[in-house]
Write a structure and sequence with these properties.
39% helix; seven-stranded parallel sheet; alpha/beta
Length: 336
Amino acid sequence: MKKILITGAAGFIGHNLSKRLLDDGRTVVGLDNLNNYYDPELKKARLAELLVYEGFTHAEFDMADREKMAKLFEKEQFDGVVNLAAQAGVRYSLINPHSYVDTNLVGFVNVLEGCRHTRVKHLLYASSSSVYGANTKMPFSVHDNVDHPVSLYAASKKANELMAHSYSHLFGLNTTGLRFFTVYGPWGRPDMALFLFTKAILEGRPIDVFNNGNMERDFTYIDDIVEGVVRLIDNLPVANPSWSGEAPDPASSYCPWRVYNIGNNSKEKLMRYIEVLEDCLGKKAEKNFLPMQDGDVPATYADVSDLVREIDFKPATTIEEGVKNFVDWYRGYYKI
């Protein structure tokens, strides 16, 4: 896979993945519409780091634009595609549901069609731990059914997995879904807890702690996410010879389609996460305890046994190390 399209290249994961692939000597075409869901200046700063690479080019338009997407695929003839562009955020999906349809559904169909018509060898796409929805059996396994989403965002990600399966079935397109678990680290998203908490604590404002602090998350450091994706890019999915329609395995298929969890395989209490952040900042947080928000879940916890078996990799960065790296980046970026 020498030439790869990264959608959402100016985003948190897209930026870090693009840098890694470019450092490895691959050619990357980045696609991003630089929308204002959060500070576009942060996206432009990430993009500036990529534009210094000779092997990087950037296309700026919305992937819901069918005609431009078709032309991009036809012109570039990609070996592989990693679809990371999405309207993110569980809570925002309660406010602006149509944006999730435009990007996560319409945009994803355009990606699938581009891959189909230009014979892309492998499509990897971001799914989410949110697809586990109302499931309570821990750790979350890709072999469990995920048919009860509790937000439109989660439903759109489950839809991506189903849409990819139909293209794997109909056209033999190799597709791999990546269920990311609470990604954090340098260059992170301003709408996520670590960024919000850090900003508020340094400004002397209280932080909002939902479900009265009784939350657990499988916090996964960005470098571990990137390592998992890089190893999977050249790991083409194959049909599962033991797959049966009588007892269907939700993680595999009779066609070249797979889904994987990429998580730290450990639950951390939100209050512990905040304690680590306080230690790194050298400042205590004033906490505003609130009930759980609609669309949220009390805990996430990834079973990554399939990932370990397939690519011999298990994320393992501790929150102590990861949060410190984020705080160091934050202070440097904002000159604090």
